[in-house]
Amino acid sequence: MADIFPGPDIFPAGMLPSLVEMMAKIIFIFTMNMGVFAPLLGWVERKQSALMQDRIGANRADILGFTVFGLLHTLTDAIKLLTKEDFIPEGADRPLHYLAPFIAVVPALIAFAVIPFGGQYDLWGHKTNLVIADLDVGVLFVFAVASISTYGSVIAGWASNNNWSLLGGVRVAAQMLSYEVAMGLALVGIFMVYGTLRLTDIGVAQENFLHWGIFLQPLGFILFITCALAENKRTPFDIPEAESELIAGYFTEYSGLKFAMFWMAEFLEMVTISGVLVALFFGGWQIPFVSGAALARLFGFLGPNLAQVAVMLVHVAVFWAKILLWIFILMLIRWTLPRFRYDQVMKLGWKIILPLSLINILVTGLVMLLVK
Amino acid sequence: MELLMFYGFGLLALFAGVAMILSRQPVTSALLMILNMFCLSALYALLDAHLIAVLQLLVYAGAIMVLVLFVIMLLNLREKKGIITKHQASLQVVGVAAFGFFVMTVVSRLNTAALPKSKAASAGFGTVEAVGRILFTDYVLPFEIASVLLLAAIVGAVMLAKSKV
Fold first, then answer.
1. How far is the C-alpha of A321 from the C-alpha of A327, rounded, in Å?
2. Chain A contact present for B60, CB below 8 A
3. What is the pTM of this model?
């Protein structure tokens, strides 16, 4: 067997820096997602909805009179969810009921592995590529992982032994299936324009402001963001958890930390969607009209290595700022639009978005043929 | 490391496959099948066929199995305790015998046949570009025939569904 899989040496020379780099990147992304976004987005959402509905918003939880803009609500939420009784309904499929929230959360975290949060930098002779896994299949990996996360909700709906949950689960399955196809096709135009699926290459290609995905593929962008909203299962596409019809849909029978995990999965998916949006359509880590080389010249007084570090930090900050902007816009959409009806969601997916994405591919192909 | 992963995922795939057949719950069977496909995808990835691995996950584990699960849930299929009839019992005997014969043939063949020496994958093997190029040059005819076949299936499905409305 040994010669069928000729494995590389486990520790070739120069492995240590790459290992350190890899661990640092994984830890960075993990803390950003689990430590910053997962807990704080709940607060952002509360404050933003309050602002939009002309309310004051979350401001009651306090320690010795200090409310810190309602940030303490996040803390009280955490305490509440941790200490709540973990309830499993009678007749539920216990192992599956337990497994479902994990299947929902883990893919949301893994998907970020292929999204580049910065470019390539030469630090002290070590090439640093700010993406955890620079895969050739790129964004397809995000889709594949997202399609696995669907099972979290579907299994939750099934395992709860509750009709509302089951209906929610069935709706999730139908909705995901309908929009996954259109989402993939909406992005084919982007792949055609840039000639690659590798997200780092797409990021490099967007150094010129006018070559950002949004300008080259405006229709593809609108179609993709619609499908992404549907995959995220938030209003206006939240029919799987429509309160007025299904109580809470697939997570009706969940409480405590497991309920929190579904909540977290939703927020993390939002971060991932924003990441894909930024990487594909909004120039990734690039700043409009300021190339990486120009930025390096600006920081030139720091010496070659420190200048690269400065450029890297600026790019990473720009990337996360763009993500924050997109999360804000996604929440804006959520609090603006009412929920669609089930048949409207299906009709939109199959009869409007799918044909439009096919037309987009056709037009993109024709234009590319004419330009070349 | 790769060998270890190969055995891990291979054994898990075998376990999932056997458990899928033995499980009496349709939903559990479907989930085990997803696990099996997931392991297969991991094995493809170990073989440097990244595109195939992702497509396996996306199309089979992600889309087709969601559909299977959807139908099972829609029909609300629960555990079925059937009685094995005489006819079924004899069929089972025939099935086991046929499978045993199959396994024996495969094993005896593999024992005698010399396996071709494996080569390290060439650079760019399994990338989207490489697979796409092969698909549209060497295998363009089977590729197009498959697409016509799928189109025929879609048209057929639409016709069947329409007549009921």
1. 10
2. no
3. 0.79
